[in-house]
Specification:
With 302 residues, the chain is an alpha/beta fold. The chain has a single domain, classed as Ribokinase (UDP-N-acetylmuramoyl-L-alanine:D-glutamate ligase, 3-Layer(aba) Sandwich). It has nine helices and 14 strands. The strands form three sheets. The protein has an eight-stranded mixed sheet with strand order 4-1-9-10-11-12-13-14, with helices on both faces. It has a four-stranded mixed sheet with strand order 3-2-7-8. It has a two-stranded parallel sheet with strand order 5-6. A hairpin with a 5-residue loop joins strand 7 and strand 8. Helix 1 crosses helix 7 and helix 7 packs antiparallel against helix 8. It is globular.
Length: 302
């Protein structure tokens, strides 16, 4: 199973409470994988307030497994997203449910191994950060990380670095945007960062560049893929759709076999990345983190 761990929150679009939609990087990735017919689960703490009910219903409708998920009375975190005059967001997330995860026990999901994926806010915020780091450190399947950096939310850079490093020590598959890498390792070329990650634990590093496509770095070599040309409505959730598609493809190829990840060929990585870039492009054609279904993805490729 693909187990996405971290925060679920509500995106309030253009300040209009009536346009509140579920969001959060790991939750979006779980939805994206489920819509592509992969066995997908979400692990995090979801509020029992109105925002939490919105999130819970969203996950249930798309068939995401919630047996290892927690509920709690803490409020739902909110991202106030504005598209005019230019895209921006303001975060409201003090003492929210996503920070208060008490445990991450995957036994409820059945026998593994599983692919465990995380990043974004859940990687470093509150009690959740340590609970999820411990989960990855004892996990025997593939670990995937998308740091999905949100500088406006990171108040303590040293804390962020600490948890990022804990994840890196066990991460097999690392996806980041070029902007993420520039924030994490300022001034360093993407290829240099990828080489360092591959010299560590990672078997594959994927760097996305928005409309310019993506680069996959592996021990066997490097490939570049283009992003399909589409009319962009907004880019919210595009990276999460990309990740959900990659994880689905990896699951379909080898399940959660950590040792087998390095055996994926460059030709297979090209197919994986091209499919993921298409899923991200479709997401960009509509408002919010609305990733495509398997049928929509297939129709686009016809």
């Amino acid at each position: 199973m693909i187990v996405c761990c971290g925060e679920a929150l509500v995106d309030v679009l253009d300040g209009d409470e009536r346009r509140s939609v579920p969001g959060g990087g790991p939750m979006n990735a779980a939805i994206a994988a489920a819509r592509l017919d992969a066995p997908s689960a979400f692990v995090g703490r979801v509020s029992t307030d109105a925002g939490g009910e919105l999130i819970w219903g969203h996950l249930q409708r798309d068939g995401v497994d919630l047996r290892a998920c927690e509920r709690g009375p803490e409020p739902t975190a909110r991202a106030m997203v504005s598209f005019t005059p230019s895209p921006s967001f303001r975060f409201e997330g003090d003492d929210t449910a996503d920070t208060a995860l008490e445990s991450a026990e995957l036994s409820a999901l059945g026998p593994g191994p599983h692919i465990v994926h995380g990043g974004t806010l859940g990687m470093f915020r509150g009690r959740t950060a340590d609970v999820l780091a411990q989960l990855t450190e004892r996990h025997d399947g593939i670990v995937s990380l998308d740091p999905n950096v949100r500088p406006a939310v990171i108040e303590d850079r040293r804390r962020w670095d600490h948890f990022h490093q804990r994840w890196l020590s066990v991460t097999d598959l690392y996806r980041a945007s070029d902007e993420d890498l520039d924030w994490i390792w300022p001034g360093r070329p993407d290829a240099n960062c990828a080489t360092e990650l591959l010299d560590g634990r990672a078997a594959a590093v994927i760097v996305t560049r928005g409309s310019e496509g993506a680069t996959v770095y592996t021990g066997a070599g490097t490939i570049d893929v283009a992003a399909p040309a589409v009319e962009v409505v907004d880019t919210v959730g595009a990276g999460d759709a990309f990740v959900g598609s990659v994880l689905t493809s990896v699951w379909d190829l080898l399940g959660a076999d950590r040792a087998a990840l390095a055996s994926i060929s460059l030709a297979e990585w090209r197919s994986i990345a091209e499919l993921a870039a298409t899923a991200a492009a479709i997401t960009c054609t509509r408002v919010g983190a609305d990733s495509p279904s398997a049928r929509e993805l297939a129709a686009f490729l016809e």
